[in-house]
Amino acid sequence: MTVRSYREALHDALRTELRRDESVFLLGEEIGRFEGSYKITAGLLDEFGPKRVRDTPIAEEGFTGAAVGAAMLGLRPVVEIMTINFSLLALDQIVNHAAKVYGMFGGQARVPMVIRTPGGGGQQLGATHSQNVELYYAFVPGMKVVAPSDPADAKALLLAAIRDDDPVLVLENLALYNTRGEVPDHDEPAPIGTARITRTGTDITLVAYSRMAAVALQVAERLAETDGIDAEVVDLRSLRPLDRDTVVASVRKTNCAVVLEDDWLTYGIGAEVAATISDGAFDWLDAPVRRVAMAEVPLPYAKPLETAALPSADDAIAAVRQTLDAVARRR
Amino acid sequence: MTDILMPRLSDTMTEGAVATWHKRPGDRVVPGDLLVEIETDKAVMEHEAYEAGTVAEILVPEGRAAAIGAPIARLTADSPATPPSPVPSPGSAVPAASAPPESTASGAAAVPGAAVEPAPSESASAGAAVKPAPSGSAAAGAAMSDVAARVEGPGRRAATPLVRRLARERGIDLSAVPGTGPGGRIVRADLDLFGTAAVSPVAGAPAGGTDRREPTAVPFDGVRQTIAARLTTSASTVPTFTVTASAAVDDLLDLRVRVNAALDGRKVTVNDLLVRAVARALRAHPGVNASYSPEGRGRTLLHGRVHVGVAVASPAGLIVPVIHDADRASVTDISARTRELAGKAADRTLAPDELADATFTISNLGMYGIESFTAIVNPPQGAILAVGAVREEPAAGGGTVRRLRCTLTADHRIIDGALAAQFLATLTGLLEHPLTVLA
Amino acid sequence: MPTSTSAPRRRRRPPTNPAADDAQLLAFYRQMVLVRRFEERAARAYTEARIGGYCHLNLGEEATVAGLAAALDPTDYLFATYREHGYALARGIAPERVMAELYGRTDGVSGGWGGSMHMFDADTRFMGGYGIVGGQVPLATGAALAIEYRGGGEAVVCLLGDGTTNIGAFHESLNLAALWHLPIVYVIVNNGLGMGTTVEQASAEPELHRRAAAYRMDSARVDGNDPTAVYDAVRTALAGARAGRPYLLETVSGRLKGHSVVDPAKYRSRAEAAALAAADPVAAYAVRLHGAGLLTDELIAEIDADATATVAAAADFAEHSPHPDVSTLFDHTYATPVPNDARRLPGEPLFPVPANGVPA
């Protein structure tokens, strides 16, 4: 085990795969000479050269589509899209092509590509640079979407994504890049499609992914200290496929749940989780499933407005308390 | 048309069974007439008519049970019909004998939810299909309840899916469970407090095919249901421990012989002496004459009065009539009252208040030769004493001594081991010095 | 899936012979007639409800199909549009498999998963028809990038319609190809209409090949009704592409029928339709070969009968090919199986409820 930042863990995974497999190459805006907008690819151009670390023009649709085509011929491109907001320019190539080629050609062509892209608000980047639209991709069969919340998973899930023969979107997060944690020294991938219980508990289930999964852990610790509440945290890790069984098993144990998500509430990932709980744990529910999600506004620039709109640990704690009050677990 | 509702005739009943109808369809009824006998979880109770009319229809036949507040018969009002009023008398359909109108507006006495927490508008919705129009500020809420009653039918209560499943499995009628969740919704905690009433009929049955154990199902009556529910709650929610002590009772038995000789026909039993001794020991150790309360951060309720319940095996099942203020009663008084209560239990004529408010229970299986046993605490009481048979044992200095073993089961949330030990020491001391029992 | 290259990049190639020999000229004709009869049979099968969905035909485009396909090496990759039946045939995919795909059967070239717009065949490096206008253009560019990455000698030919030259992906792709010197030829099949919209209505520069200038890319416009002209132009373009100079070629031909089989093309005047019919490239090419002494009336009849028999056999084959079994529905969602891939039919619950009603 080594303590690494989330950023370093991603970098380690990229470097490992570039060294391991000649067919792996990186492409994206500013990933080479500029060393990446968030410095994930720092030093890789020097080590691997411009063929394998390829700077692109500002043309998300073009280079993302080119990655799909290169993958169809057996290469393993890893695309960096600077933030998930810009992935919308490549939506057609991701949804209509990357996710479709394998199925619509009857399984004859594979698309072993990765799209790395960070979501996240809270940096006063305004409405167009603070969105969390991973739902758009998680919605689409043929895509795989993973959303690591700590450095160990960041490395293990990126390794898995690169070695997978399907298009995988790896959702990173601006606020997580500097977080640190223990990372195994080995290069074992994590299984895509599985959630992880990051804290066991008996009183309530917190379901989250990406940044909010890290927040959920803090929330659980605070609740244990201040309220004596023993919360279980389910880190979804994989948004597609979605590990419904782990969520449902946890709620069958705790009988109530709060979903924490950085996206908008209406039609969001939390809605899917809540529906899953309704399907699989209806007879175990002792309270309605609560969702803590972003306010439904284009995210403003001004700090107080931005802060108010984003889901916080305090929001989550209030939701947990209200839920447990409703089932008399706190009386 | 007025509905006659299943009355609440015991503090713990959730449903009652119709034992005997004293009126038939077509019979005239005036207030005070005996209408029906109801078997509650504790006794068979008489129930009288509150208003005049003619019995139109019996809805629940003899032998069948219904939840509190459920209609069991219909009464046609005497003609001429009471003139229509914009605000009909709130009490008109509510069999709450003595309650003033403002408290009956919510149908408190006729409404299941009112058993523990009277009068939330939520519980009113579980009331009768025909409801009196409420007056004053309660009107809006009750009107909504009316809508709910029409849409969901009588007895439909807001309850979480978990609660509905558990209630199915435990055979609990949710209409009788008070809900403390938002808007009166029943949550699991409410169910756990309420207790379980029946074991799932599926449980224990061999998988597939016919049951080769060839069982005969004996449905629980009210008493059995209450026993099952209360003791399950006790065993699954109350942390208990037991302590046992024995007392040399040669002197006590000799004293009893002498007392009985002097009493001219009326007999004092060992049990009567025990009740008296226990009452005195409880007075000496108020911490044992206590109940656990979850209020706030939890608290111990120290009871100012000593009411000793005596478990009795009656034809109706296990019944615990109560000797109120046993510490202030003489042994003969205790003896007389115990005999009277046991007789009523056998006849199923115990009144609710003769079964209520015990602060401690004695269960005596000595008559069956049992040496010692443990009993389960009967919540909210804090402890119970299990008494075995008097046995002759070799004495330390040769010869024999007659000893009696007592085992105290205590709620550890409020009673610690030392206190339990001190209580038993006091009790055995009293039994071994029987004059102090009589004093 | 083709993942390796068959020859080293920049290998010496024999000099392009601009004059196709007589056998090639006759082969063009046979190819054109086969496409013509096949598409006519497809149109009939559509009206008989044997074919569903959209169905876009190459009627009027036969000369471009024949000339272009003949110019490709077997190891080259061809990306097509949704109007691709003829190219699939010309690339060497058996007519039975193309027709079976239109019928949605298991023997179809895409196993019944793609239909008219999404045919794919790894063996012939037919890299797919694409239903989204221009969706294939970035993909083809990426395929060329893969060839370049591996140092292979193959090239990519990417078909696109005239309307596609107005989408962003077209420009992004041409820019990438030119920047990175990719071995790719973009072929604009200009039939004058994007559905009902003319090139002049849609494009500020209606000489579409001239858009290459923005990327300093070689380009040319050629008569799409002349298979030899198309053949020569594509050979030239491919030679440049293999040398790292991507190319933009524009072929100009007509669309004899509507945008798809259900389009009556009312936006065209009777005179326009008559002019198109008069300029029918198959008939014109037959007259040309007849005049050159390469075709006789008997041979014309024989070739026609062969093509008719071939497509009849293809239709018969397709008719008798099995429908895909519903049990295969979840076979092609993911290439790498992962846990929790939902395999649930629409009416099925996510969490099964056992018969006794007790939750699992």
UniProtKB/TrEMBL annotation, chain A:
Q: Which UniProt keywords apply?
A: Oxidoreductase, Pyruvate, Thiamine pyrophosphate
State if Transmembrane is listed as a keyword.
no
Cofactor needs: thiamine diphosphate
In which organism is this protein found? Actinocatenispora rupis
Q: Where is the Transketolase-like pyrimidine-binding domain?
A: 4-179
- Classification via CDD domains: TPP_PYR_E1-PDHc-beta_like
Give the matching InterPro entries: THDP-binding, Transketo_C/PFOR_II, Transketolase-like_Pyr-bd, Transketolase_C
Show the taxonomic lineage: Bacteria, Bacillati, Actinomycetota, Actinomycetes, Micromonosporales
Q: Which SMART domains match?
A: Transket_pyr
Name of the molecule in the record? Pyruvate dehydrogenase subunit beta
Superkingdom, according to UniProt? Bacteria
Q: Name one GO molecular function term.
A: oxidoreductase activity
What PANTHER family does the entry give? PYRUVATE DEHYDROGENASE E1 COMPONENT BETA SUBUNIT, PYRUVATE DEHYDROGENASE E1 COMPONENT SUBUNIT BETA
One Pfam family this sequence matches:
Transketolase_C
From TrEMBL, chain B:
Q: Which residues form the Peripheral subunit-binding (PSBD) domain?
A: 158-195
Pfam entry (one) = 2-oxoacid_dh
Q: Which GO terms describe its molecular function?
A: acyltransferase activity
Q: Which GO terms describe its biological process?
A: pyruvate decarboxylation to acetyl-CoA
Q: Which domain of life is it from?
A: Bacteria
List, for all copies, the residue spans of the domain called Lipoyl-binding. 1-76
Q: Where is the composition biased (Low complexity)?
A: 90-120
Which cofactors are reported in the record for this sequence? (R)-lipoate
Q: Where is this region: Disordered?
A: 77-120
Gene Ontology cellular-component terms for this entry are: pyruvate dehydrogenase complex
* InterPro entries associated with the record: 2-oxoacid_DH_actylTfrase, Biotin_lipoyl, CAT-like_dom_sf, E2/Pdx1, E3-bd_dom_sf, PSBD, Single_hybrid_motif
Q: Which UniProt keywords apply?
A: Acyltransferase, Lipoyl, Pyruvate, Transferase
EC numbers, comma separated = 2.3.1.-
Q: Which PANTHER family match?
A: DIHYDROLIPOAMIDE ACETYL/SUCCINYL-TRANSFERASE-RELATED, DIHYDROLIPOYLLYSINE-RESIDUE ACETYLTRANSFERASE COMPONENT OF PYRUVATE DEHYDROGENASE COMPLEX, MITOCHONDRIAL-RELATED
Similarity annotation: Belongs to the 2-oxoacid dehydrogenase family.
The protein's name is: Dihydrolipoamide acetyltransferase component of pyruvate dehydrogenase complex
Q: Which organism is it from?
A: Actinocatenispora rupis
Q: The organism's lineage?
A: Bacteria, Bacillati, Actinomycetota, Actinomycetes, Micromonosporales
UniProtKB/TrEMBL annotation, chain C:
A GO molecular-function annotation:
magnesium ion binding
Which residue stretches belong to region Disordered?
1-20
Instruction: State the signal peptide span.
Output: none
Q: Name one GO biological process term.
A: pyruvate decarboxylation to acetyl-CoA
Catalysed reaction equations from the record: N(6)-[(R)-lipoyl]-L-lysyl-[protein] + pyruvate + H(+) = N(6)-[(R)-S(8)-acetyldihydrolipoyl]-L-lysyl-[protein] + CO2
Q: Which UniProt keywords apply?
A: Oxidoreductase, Pyruvate, Thiamine pyrophosphate
Asked whether the UniProt record includes Oxidoreductase among its keywords, one would answer yes
A Pfam cross-reference name: E1_dh
Q: What class of enzyme is it?
A: oxidoreductase
Q: Where is the Dehydrogenase E1 component domain?
A: 30-326
Cofactor requirement: thiamine diphosphate
Q: What EC number(s) are associated with this protein in UniProt? A: 1.2.4.1
Subunit structure, as described in the record: Heterodimer of an alpha and a beta chain.
Main function: The pyruvate dehydrogenase complex catalyzes the overall conversion of pyruvate to acetyl-CoA and CO(2).
- Output this protein's name: Pyruvate dehydrogenase E1 component subunit alpha
